[in-house]
Write a structure and sequence with these properties.
Elements lengths: L3 H19 L1 E3 H7 L4 H14 L3 E3 L2 E3 L10 H12 L4 E6 L4 E7 L2 E7 L5 H9 L7 E5 L14 E7 L5 E4 L9
Parallel strand pairs: 6-7, 7-8
Antiparallel strand pairs: 1-3, 2-3, 4-5, 5-6, 8-9
């Protein structure tokens, strides 16, 4: 007979991986990244907090006791975007700048990038010099007006993430993404 630890071992390892990788995650993000396992996830989160393996801060689960203070907002927002695609995602991880998150879905590589206001030209130049097989980009913006300032190939869409985690998606009005 399997023990409780053996039954939940895989889910616990996945939760610890996600929280260690993304550092600060809302419970809703974790539930979305592990669909259909809500009760297990909630129980495991409580257990991992009691064990001192993760911490709670400002309603989020963190990989360090300082948690919220070290949070990177762009990465936190990128997890909301990732969660919208989780049904197709085969693998996900943090990315190298300018990517916040990189993931594989349906045989394609996607990068979630953040376009900071005032840095649109720099980001456009960086992403225009992609390698032989460039990724497809999901670009997080703060205001819709930023889209006209971005000239990035292979953009699947632009999005604005609300503080509550709702993601609104936009297509370019300048035609600089592949249809």
């Amino acid at each position: 007979m399997k023990t409780r630890a053996q039954i939940y071992e895989r889910e616990a390892a996945a939760l610890l991986r996600d929280i260690s990788m993304y550092h600060v995650m809302a419970e809703e993000q974790l539930l979305r990244l592990h669909p259909g396992k809500e009760d297990k996830i909630k129980n495991l989160l409580s257990y991992l907090v009691r064990q001192g393996r993760i911490w709670q801060d400002h309603g989020c689960y963190c990989d360090t006791p300082e948690g919220w203070m070290g949070m990177k907002q762009a990465l936190f927002d990128a997890v909301w975007v990732l969660s919208d695609f989780i049904g197709q995602v085969e693998f996900h991880s943090t990315g190298d700048y300018p990517a916040e998150i990189i993931f594989f879905a349906d045989g394609e590589v996607y990068e979630i990038v953040y376009a900071a206001q005032g840095k649109e030209v720099m980001l456009s130049q960086i992403l225009s010099n992609s390698g032989e097989q460039p990724s497809r980009y999901l670009v997080m913006i703060k205001e819709v007006e930023q889209i006209a300032q971005l000239q990035i190939p292979n953009v699947n869409g632009y999005c604005i993430v609300s503080p509550g985690g709702t993601v609104e998606y936009y297509k370019s009005v300048t035609g600089n993404e592949e249809e």
